[in-house]
Amino acid sequence: MNKPQSFFHLHLISDATGETLLAAGRAASAQYKDARAIEHIYPLIRTEKQLSKVFEDIDEEPGIVLYTIVDQQLAGLIDARCAEMGLPCVSVLEPVLAVFQSYLGTPAGRRVGAQHVLDADYFRRIDALNFTMEHDDGQLPDDADSADVVLIGISRTSKTPTSIYLANRGIKTANIPIVLGVPIPEALTQATRPLIVGLVASAERVSQVRQNRMLGVAGGFDVQSYIDRATISEELAYARQICTRHNWPMIDVSRRSIEETAAAIVALRGKTR
Fold first, then answer.
1. Considering the entire predicted model, what is its pTM?
2. Other CB atoms closer than 10 Å to residue 21's CB: what's the count?
3. What is the rounded CA–CA span in Å between residue 176 and residue 144?
4. CA-CA distance, 54 to 45, in Å (whole number)?
């Protein structure tokens, strides 16, 4: 018998954007299927005045407190206030920094928002994102050899969101749709630089996603053929044939999140370099 779902408050305090903290909080929350976190995010907290306002909110809706605060004085205040209120409190970065310090033999520089500095890596990610948007859904196919990764697949196999996720990691990613009976661009078969990966899924999964995306489709579109599982199976078989013919790896995205698919692609890049 399934337990009724319960709710709890999760307070996330960060001196930067809070992205790291949010990812950690959600990763932990996902392990508890019968409890759902009500997230309260407090980004850019860098003064005692700001922190006081945060704790006014926490006092109204007590819960777990996670934080990534580099300033040790502010971090100490968070620990002290949570102890007074009897609330669990964890510094997400501190255990990691301790390991780094032990291994490297030097303390961390304690720079607020250090992961968001405008360095060469930042501009590399921006360049990759611009490239990916320009090469989305088969645009500029003759430029395939300029990509780091090219994703191919039939409609609704998560090509675009996966491309954007990879681009945010600095990987120039193009994606090209496979249409039943239509040859793939010649430039793609001749490309030597990029890793080309086929994304596939079960016919049931593709049909389900397509049905959910049919709202707002223009008139004259053959909806039944688009969501028909037999037709989708033919499309998938055609896509698999193309990948097999060219010895391109395939990833089944039926039960994968975008993050998991991207991680598999990054792993493939490491093997082919």
1. 0.69
2. 23
3. 9
4. 9
